[in-house]
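Review form for a predicted model. The reviewer records the input and the model, then writes brief findings.
Reviewer: anonymous (R2)
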Amino acid sequence: MVEALQLGLILEQARTVTDLSFNVDIQPLIKQQSSFNAQLRIHIIQILAKYVVGFSDYATFIKLQHQHHWQIPAGYMTKQYPLKVNTVDKSSIKGQPKVLDNIYSIGLVLATPFLPLFLAHLYIFLCQIFLGI
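Model under review:
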C-alpha cells in the first residue's frame, strides 16, 4: 500500500492517464439526467416569464414548478442540540479540538443519555496525541 503512494508511481500514472469522456466516465443515470433536464426547462421558462411578455402566464403554472425529489415524512422534526457559549479560540490549533470536544460531548449526552462519553474522550485523546498536547 505504501508503494502506491510513492511520488514516482503517481507521476508515471499521471503521464499515462487519458482524458475523461462524459459519455463513458461521467454519464449520469437516466433518472439523474431526466431530473436535470426537467430543472433546466423550469429555469428557462422562469427566465422567459420574467423577461418576455408572452411567457408571463407560465410563471405560476403548476407543472413548471420545481418538484420534490425526496418528500420529508409528515411530522418529521430535525433534532437540534444547542451549544454552550464557548470562549475558546476555535481558529487555533489547540483550540479546535476543545471546541469539537464541547460539541461532541454535549451532542452525545443529549442524543444518547445511556451511552458513556467514551467516544468523545477517545476523540480528545486522539487529538491530543496528534497535536502533541
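Findings: Helices lie at 7-16, 22-26, 30-51, 95-111, 118-131.
Further findings: The CA atoms of residues 105 and 120 lie 6 Å apart.
Recommendation: see findings above.
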